Amino acid sequence: MQPTQSLNSLGALQTLTIAGKNYAWFSLEATQETLGDLSHLPRSIRILLENLLRHEDTEHVGQEDIRSLATYHTLQTTPPTLTLTPSRMVLDDETGLSLMADMAAFRASAAREGFEPSLINPACPSDIIIDNNIPTPEGRERLVFLKWAQGRMKNLRLIPPYAGKSTQVNTDYLTTSIQILEDPDSPLLFLAPELVISPLKGFFSASALGTLTLKDDTLAAESVALEHPYLLTLPAVLGVHVTGRPRKNVHASDIGFLLASLLGQINCTGKIIEFFGEGLDSLSVPDRAVLAGVAEEAGAHGIYFPFDDATLDHMKETGHSVAHTALVESYAKAQGLWQDPPPPHSEEEEQEASTEKEIKTFSDVLFLPLEQARPALAGPDLLSRLTLLEEAKALFAKRFVKASDRTSSADTLHTGDILVAEIGPSGFYDHLTELALAGLIARKAQLYGLKVKPWVRALFRPQSPSTLRFLENAGLRQDLEFLGFRHVAEPPPWPPAPKENATDMAQKNIVAVRLTSHGDLSLDSASALCQAHYRAAPPLVVLYAMTGNFLVDMTQAIGTDAQGNPVMIKDLWPSPREVSELFQNYPPANAHRILRVNLFEGNEAFKAITPPQEALYPWPARSAFLKEPPFYASARAQQKTWPIAAHKGRILAFYGDDIPASSLAAHGAIAPQEAAGFYLTAQGHSLHEQSRFSWYTGNHDVMVRGAFCADQLINLLVPPEQSIRKGTYHESSEMILPLFDVAERYKNENTPLFLVAGKQFGKGDGKEWMAKSIALMGVKAVLAQSFTASARLALLRAGVLPLAFKTGVKMADLKLSVKTRLSLSSLSVPDRQPSDVMLTVENEDDISRYMVMCPMQTLEEVELLRQGSLFALSLANLVKQRVT
Question: Are the beta carbons of 420 and 495 closer than 8 angstroms?
Fold first, then answer.
């Protein structure tokens, strides 16, 4: 919707003059005569309120919705459900490939219905950042397809390979914080704050620039792309009050570990976390990006930081124009999104005054006192487990060292040996200061003759080419390499992997360590041997790599020089002056400027790719990576027939409580001996050692065969003594077979299928391919004691009924077995939410009946159920447009 199409019933549309130029905007202050004082609202809520004002209409956003949001945090009534219009969606090649494959399939379906294919485009501006350039000839197909999508679809930008990881690219180059909107009905440009959604891990770092970031799954993004409303049931807003100043030699990672330990003591899941307070004055945007990553890992649904001088400094450094940064400052101050430094008074008075004020503003407030942060690590298992540096050795020894350790001096490894030491992003974002410190430590270490120990696999992998360019210009890459750290993009030889396997190490009571600075928990062969996983700031990772063992007391000497003299941390740690001079001599802005200019160009190989010119994508035959998805081609046939009934169906699998979506979706490496591996090799495609499901999100036949294969996933219908516990029972063959094979057999036999689970089904990431795979296997309904809200909606979008047992029903009462038959009786066309349906559970010795409900909460969910799926609904809406 264009801005001037807003009903503007509250008179919010105003004119703002910046640098002599007039802009239109929707002023919150102008609505206060009607809505009352809004200054008490969290800034994140102010952004949501502006979004409603700008899109007020007669269908999705009414004045009552605006009033409900404006008063909710004062009255604390039932959380309202908001219909929002995101500014932008951010995807990587994995999520973008599957979404664009569905859009291409929708184009083909539209053409079959007699529509012009060019009508089908993402309704929301979308950025696809290609993180991974697949190292196979077939991998080029992905780039051809994505380049075709960019050329044929509106509202789509493609950032080619080698521009950097999506987290860094989005934060440093794509985030504008305040968007400038054109409207053909008005001579004025419109200003509005960014509201960005994404399914990507680490995406929240953009919140450090005053952008409200909300995380959702890929199906939710696809729904927005298909012009369906983005619905948000207003979360609680946790205010993190940042106070004080960091001590000397305490950096962003250390503050992040303190924050993680504090957030770990409360429930943050699904909340918006908004940072505020005078302590932000001492934190740069990279510092804030590190904290945003910590808040994300604590389970936040959204993150927000206010605008201030640090925002403008970072925007200038990363290449935003002076005019744009001035516009950002003027708008943020006018809209009440700017945080001014507090007036000077005592710390006690400040805390008392702000506590009284902010408790009225936020759902809850957490204090983050920067002065309490110390040099620390997180681990050895949870990010929220804070380990102070001076206590690290003792705590590790207490937990892992056994009496039988170190009994043989001939052992290749000992407990505490560090097998992997990786530096790069601090959490999810390249923190140049921390990486510069790591490089300067490596430079000083050379003077003392120190090196990384030979058994340590020492790597560095920055997120952005601009980071690597800065390290190269300053000579720090060379210093790190001389010390023993190798850039991850370089080919072998690597430091040798240990000869022991996991079994040998367990028999010898050897606990090896992996030490990283980043949030990527994917493991290679060496990392898989490590039982203890710690996260630390890049400088600390470098120091530990030189010791080679976690049982070294870092408060004492970490090594000796050529003369046998002890070398202490203080001997290696750079002074603030050294760091300052480094940045003065090698300004990061130079590296940012080069990357920004060429951001959308790509290298010569990418430029040479010539995509098809057809409006409909010509899907390649027998491709491993690309195959037309079936969701739209079969949308008509898959539309629900009312009333819904299923007779004498079988249970495909029965799982317990808290099953994460990621364990149900295909992820990780592709095992040659499992269904997806068999399929690819049977199709004539070779599997590489590093072949991963994330490469194949454009081929549903691969993804569905990789579902339900996680090691921790136990089908409770399969007896413990059976070897195929990830499989299931097939009745007519009386065999336990891989789950996908059983699903195919039941589909061919026209037997209805069900999935049964306990509480909180489908939490966490991975909901897109969880829901799509369940639908592709022919499962009619998932029966669970409860669902996460997003998992329930993902299942509805994929065309699967989420049915919840009513309170009081225990799973043990159902007596489920491989012989159980389930039937659903007459679920009528829904005209309300929730809708009830009768479930009959038929065992060999008894029959029982239960009322289960489809726990819909919004009219959109009712409409999804009516039509059968997101795909069927989108096709029906297209046909409806022709009728009207």
Answer: no
Here the tokens at position 192 are: 């509005």
The radius of gyration computed from the CA coordinates of the chain, to the nearest angstrom, equals 28
Is residue 351's pLDDT more than 60?
no
Q: What is the pLDDT of residues 793-840, one digit of tens each?
A: 999 999 999 999 988 888 888 899 889 999 988 677 666 666 788 899
Nearest 5°: CA angle at 144, between 139 and 148? 150
SS3 (DSSP) at 822? strand
Strand-pair category, 457-460 with 486-487? parallel
824, 837 Cβ separation under 8 angstroms: yes
Q: How far apart, in whole angstroms, are the C-alpha atoms of residue 582 and residue 425?
A: 19
pLDDT at 381: 84
Q: What pLDDT digit, counting tens, does each position of 619-652 carry?
A: 998 899 999 999 987 666 655 566 667 889 999 9
- Spatial neighbors of 98 by CB under 8 A, at least 6 apart, are 218, 629, 697, 698, 768, 769
Give the type of residue at 766. Answer: G
Q: How many Å apart are CA 672 and CA 674, to the nearest integer? A: 6
Instruction: Sheet containing 189-193: give its strands across.
Output: 13-18, 21-26, 189-193, 178-181
Answer whether 88's CB lies under 8 Å from 240's CB: no
Structure confidence by residue, pLDDT tens digits, 374-413: 999 999 988 899 999 999 999 999 999 874 454 433 357 8
Ranges assigned E (strand) in 74-211 = 81-84, 88-92, 126-129, 156-159, 178-181, 189-193, 195-198
Pairing of strands 457-460, 418-427: parallel
Higher pLDDT, 261 or 530: 261
Place of tokens 């990507």: 200
CA distance 220 to 216: 6
Q: What percent of the chain has pLDDT over 70?
A: 90
DSSP one-letter string for 743-757: HHHHHHTT--EEEEE
Q: Quick check: 200 and 169 in contact, CB under 8 A?
A: no
The DSSP output letter for 639 is: S
Residue 488: pLDDT band by 50, 70, 90 thresholds? confident
533 contact partners, CB below 8 Å, separation of at least 6: 379, 380, 381, 513, 514, 516, 521
Run of H or E residues at 459: strand 457-460
CB 546 within 8 A of CB 453: yes
Structure confidence at residue 371 as a pLDDT band (50, 70, 90): very high
pLDDT at position 46, please? Answer: 96
879 alpha-carbon distance from chain centroid: 34
Whole-Å CA distances, 101 to 26, 95, 633, 696: 37, 10, 12, 11
Instruction: Specify the 3-state DSSP secondary structure of 539.
Output: helix
State the DSSP string of 207-250: GGGT-EEEE--HHHHHHHHTT--EEEEPPPEEEEEEES-PPTT-
- DSSP alpha helix (H) spans, 306-391: 309-317, 322-335, 347-361
3-state DSSP call for residue 738?
Answer: strand
Q: Residue 495's pLDDT is what? A: 45
Write the CB contacts of 288 (distance below 8 Å, at least 6 apart in sequence).
207, 208, 275, 280, 305, 310
Question: Is residue 507 over pLDDT 70?
Answer: no
Tell me how far CA of residue 98 lies from CA of 88, 397, 602, 631, in angstroms. Answer: 18, 46, 22, 12
Q: Alpha helices, DSSP H only, in 739-869?
A: 739-748, 767-776, 789-798, 859-867
**pTM more than 0.85:** yes
Q: What would the 3-class secondary structure string for 188-201 be?
A: CEEEEECEEEECCC
Helices 476-483 and 432-447 meet at what angle, rounded to 10?
60
* Beta strand pairing call for 835-842 and 847-854: antiparallel
